């Protein structure tokens, strides 16, 4: 009798405590964005990872919607060395600021697959020789243009130079104003914020004026080419661009273009799907092209995008790194490109038939994404937010006509020198 009771007792232990029979499940948490179906696709990829890694549970946690809010929340977690989040989705401008909180993914196999990704993004995410984030999807500034209006007014191709854009914008604007007084030639983002920093970098670099702060950390912004670029942009306002340009951001400029009130728009790839919706005035009447350049420079697009990074406070760093590399793999990036139009960071996917069928503009604009110009975040680290604020504030003053372009860049040079203590070397 006693032996029977003992056996029943042992059986109950196994029945009601399955951990005796199996190892405890490992949980890992990944914080991701929620734009469109972003979170849904991350969850789907997490389920695939779980299937291929029995005993692992991946928790997909929604991060705040805006970049500024997300940065604040993430830094709160990392500052207190919290192990609650293992994998973070970080903005392309954060690696320098976040680097001391993150593991070197090269120690977990990333060095074997890094060459699959765009060089510019790997360069952007490499801090002091350490790859602190693996690219997940990319963005770059693009030129949207009305195909129907270019044809109507006798232009056979989108502009390749800023001179050509100005000419086309003036001609189309004059013609369309006969029936639509709200029509403008060119709309873009001129408000005092990160978007203006991106626009300014594109103007300056496309005029052979450098990157504002070069790869060696030298401040190069105060040069004749850069002055020419900023002066040109300021002259657009009230001529081919609306007087309210200094209040425009991505969404407000998108609305103007989608309503049929502009010939050209500078914006990010996400606009393509939205402007193609049937009810939009421009649906089927627009296309994409690289941004123009000056005669001295080359087409330049500010690098945008998001990456995956592993916290050094994670209690499962090796597994977290494996998850990050899996999420950024060709297989998952292809799924995200086909189903969500997220621009891959892996070069071979720009030749994939399924990806191109879902996103026909990927093939034509491959070089734009491959050669996108990074903002000076890796050079300035945790000071980048202040650097960007100085850039947009001083450029904004020039756009508003408060000061001239030359004075604007002189002030910017002084502000950056005071903040960073770097030496100045103008572009020759």
From TrEMBL:
Keywords: Signal, Transport
Similarity comment: family membership: Belongs to the bacterial solute-binding protein 1 family.
Signal peptide annotation: none
SUPFAM superfamilies: Periplasmic binding protein-like II
Annotated protein name in UniProt: Extracellular solute-binding protein family 1
Stored Pfam families: SBP_bac_1 (PF01547)
CDD domains registered for this protein in UniProt: PBP2_TMBP
